[in-house]
């Protein structure tokens, strides 16, 4: 009964989505306030209904209702509770339900926190959001029925793919989807603004908070996915330039560009057309990612079982929305008048360069990801475009951003003094160079690592040099009002500094991979193996029974200079239902670096084959991403950006000059 | 600067970045694309030693030999041809005789494929898609065949694999 209620709620949500397309749009055309006002209750109710349907599906998973095909195929009564809940989105149907849930959540959020947005723009945007939810609800109901029953229910289910039975994977999809789908709000607002035809600086103010929210979640989602791949796949790698990873990187790059161009549009009313284009692009790339991952054209754990009708359906959605939005864009773009002028050497000018490079890097990743698919469709040859391609293209296109970002932050709007800014950055750049020499002297190693580490130090220092520059502006006596200026700094300044520093932190972590030690060897019990500065020893072997697996555990100790610093237990799990083994890498974090050990099955003579790594500073890769997300959140907390604040808060005049 | 000059600077820098991007992409595509062949195709194409490529097929039953150290030797087949593969390192969790495999590396002068990476599959019931396609092409593929040793209703139609 609960399951049928869920199914019904889903169908009802579709009906509401259709109403949401028509009524507010009609209201906006007819200048009918009451019709436009239907947007809010429609969006909220629709979210409630999809949430109900989602809850029903979760309930079926939790109580192991094996009369549902979806539960039979992906669950097992002995599966731990957390994976019964997260298993809901560990399969195609459920993950599309999660997508729809978050999509309607976005619609509801847009409707609920939108007092500042002009009613007509809101009505049109909610109508576009309605189109999106209608398309995806239809997709679920027609091709991916999660509530299908089975005629003769089996006693037991087939269990979830063991590799997905992991806390990291339990939270990775929701985070990623919040990021992907969060851009739908920005997309809808852009499309709504194009329909209405009025686009000014205020528009940038409406989309910035939503862009930030989506960007923060996407950053966290990507970092989480990367960490999961790192500890679960047993290779010690954290980024494979796998098409699925690229699919999440593409909207992130576009979203990052959008964040920066929206700030130009907000402050200077320039780059309007470009900002609108990026707003469309970010969500279009999210849709493309969904298509790549869900349609099964790619081969990966994400594609689950796929069937061609689904691929065609998503392709249809893709073409409809991207094509429609670009068509609208084409019609309206020429009517948009250019805003504030700026000299090439100015904050705007540098942000334009940032945007150009980010989109170029995005294009490089796009081509590397889609070229093999296009070529296979074209002449059937199968090729792989791997890490070397991406390193060679993404690297050179992204590197100038790292160098130029701190410089751009020191420039004034409209027209700036490049030499002055460069002088103020001189000390920081010198520090970066000294760091480079220091790293070279201490670690040696590959030149790329040394250079990247130096640039990372430069980025981190420069991020806060900008704050320093605002607290102690040039030409003002130092002590005077410094504290007041510090307190008066908008949170968004701290947010930007933290996010840029986070980029530096991640870069440092990446650079340090060059100093890592890898040892693939056969280990004998109780013998010492030197990995980097640490000595590893397997002390004993154990086995344990988990709820739905058997585990072979190797107890190991880590010693440095003869003293034991940590013990850990890499293991191998054998899942009964699927007859499948997974490696549980043993990972110990020591001084921001990690000792990483993955073991294979025990050999007859009692030894183990193992991969052992010492990865200095590796945790910085993800800590940097956390810092970026935290920076985004700080910016979001800024009064000026807060959703629902109609007017920009007045700032003291001296601060405005410093911006 | 006049409005026109400013616009020209903007367009100029955009074109500059675009040219840079196109140049880098074309350069990288020329040297960093790896082709995929089944053992049968490999014999036909006469790929020279040293060219990086990927091969895929089934690990032929009874051919897996553990050499000294962590080296292994096995044969990959698609029914139309076989190729010997050597690999040093840890094999993925799911590497088994009779199962699908994708290996990346190059042929040596003796015609033995020296793999430097063996790609794991995420799931027992999955097979790398490249392998499934290659096997289908050779007519070796049976729905419900090697890839469908799982027990689920969907297994027979599943031919998705993983390259991680």
Automatic annotation (TrEMBL), chain A:
Domain Cytochrome c-type biogenesis protein CcmF C-terminal: 315-639
One Pfam family named in its UniProt record: CcmF_C
Subcellular location field: Cell inner membrane
Residues that span the membrane, as ranges: 6-27, 39-60, 96-114, 121-142, 177-197, 209-229, 249-266, 273-293, 313-331, 352-374, 394-413, 425-442, 448-468, 619-637
MF-aspect GO terms: heme binding; heme transmembrane transporter activity
Protein's membrane topology: Multi-pass membrane protein
Domain Cytochrome c assembly protein: 89-295
GO cellular component, one term: plasma membrane
Keyword Ligase applies: no
Signal peptide range in chain numbering: none
Keyword annotations from UniProtKB, A to Z: Cell inner membrane, Cell membrane, Cytochrome c-type biogenesis, Membrane, Transmembrane, Transmembrane helix
GO biological process, alphabetically ordered: cytochrome complex assembly
Top-level taxon of origin: Bacteria
Summary of the function given for this chain in its UniProt record: Required for the biogenesis of c-type cytochromes. Possible subunit of a heme lyase.
Family under the similarity heading: Belongs to the CcmF/CycK/Ccl1/NrfE/CcsA family.
PANTHER family reported for this sequence: CYTOCHROME C ASSEMBLY PROTEIN-RELATED, CYTOCHROME C-TYPE BIOGENESIS PROTEIN CCMF
Name used for this protein in its record: Cytochrome c-type biogenesis protein CcmF
Source species taxonomy: Bacteria, Pseudomonadati, Pseudomonadota, Alphaproteobacteria, Hyphomicrobiales
Automatic annotation (TrEMBL), chain B:
Residues engaged in binding heme: 122, 126
Stated family: Belongs to the CcmE/CycJ family.
Extracellular side: 29-164
Subcellular location: Cell membrane; Membrane
Role summary: Heme chaperone required for the biogenesis of c-type cytochromes. Transiently binds heme delivered by CcmC and transfers the heme to apo-cytochromes in a process facilitated by CcmF and CcmH.
Protein name listed in UniProt: Cytochrome c-type biogenesis protein CcmE
Gene name of the record: ccmE
PANTHER family: CYTOCHROME C-TYPE BIOGENESIS PROTEIN CCME HOMOLOG, MITOCHONDRIAL
Gene Ontology MF terms: heme binding; metal ion binding
Gene3D superfamilies noted in UniProt: Nucleic acid-binding proteins
Chain ranges on the Cytoplasmic side, renumbered to this chain: 1-7
Entry keyword annotation includes Transcription regulation: no
Native organism: Rhodoblastus acidophilus
Any one GO cellular component localisation term in the record: plasma membrane
Cited NCBIfam families: PRK13254.1-1, PRK13254.1-5
InterPro entries: CcmE (IPR004329), CcmE-like_sf (IPR036127), NA-bd_OB-fold (IPR012340)
One Pfam family of this chain: CcmE
